[in-house]
Amino acid sequence: MANRGGATRPNGPNAGNKICQFKLVLLGESAVGKSSLVLRFVKGQFHEFQESTIGAAFLTQTVCLDDTTVKFEIWDTAGQERYHSLAPMYYRGAQAAIVVYDITNEAPLVQQLMIACIASPNIVIALSGNKADLANKRAVDFQSYADDNSLLFMETSAKTSMNVNEIFMAIGGDCQKVSHRLAGANSGRNRGAPCCSN
Description:
By secondary structure, this protein is an alpha/beta fold. It has one domain (18-183): P-loop containing nucleotide triphosphate hydrolases (Rossmann fold), CATH 3.40.50.300. It contains five helices and seven strands. It has helices at residues 34-43, 87-91, 110-119, 143-148, 164-186; strands at residues 18-27, 56-65, 68-77, 96-102, 124-130, 152-155, 196-197. Strands 1, 2, 3, 4, 5, 6 and 7 form a seven-stranded mixed beta sheet that branches. α3 links the parallel β4 (96-102) and β5 (124-130). The two termini are 27 Å apart. This is RAB5A, member RAS oncogene family. GO terms for molecular function: GTP binding; GTPase activity.
């Protein structure tokens, strides 16, 4: 019988590459563009009239960051008030969160940021000011807020794809740093493998 375990698949990660898997949740009010951001990142598509998410949608995307293959497990949560009680089920165990807001709308961020912060003490939080293609209708700018609270911040446009890949790649890099830090802190404690492995 042939040995099938040692062969490297042509389209798989290179031998010796690290493989990381991160759970990422998108939070934000309804109609800020969460689903559009994910669709643009995963499929490179944009639909002008995106239907509202019911409960949550799940998608995956794999990217290469230097010598690491990063797989995102992305949970796109519904923004409508009636689904807020379901949020803990989706963000539990997440390593990263993107809190999305619409730069043309003055809706507060407090609830979404609180949800992201209580998800995990080591969660990577990014703030995405979406609909940057409508900058002439800007109502809010949270750049200084993000700086003051050490949050990753980018203004994005799912419509034009501005900074969409960049925000996910930046999150992947920050998640790797957190993963390595936690792996070092837990070495010798036998608490299970970190999410990055060779």
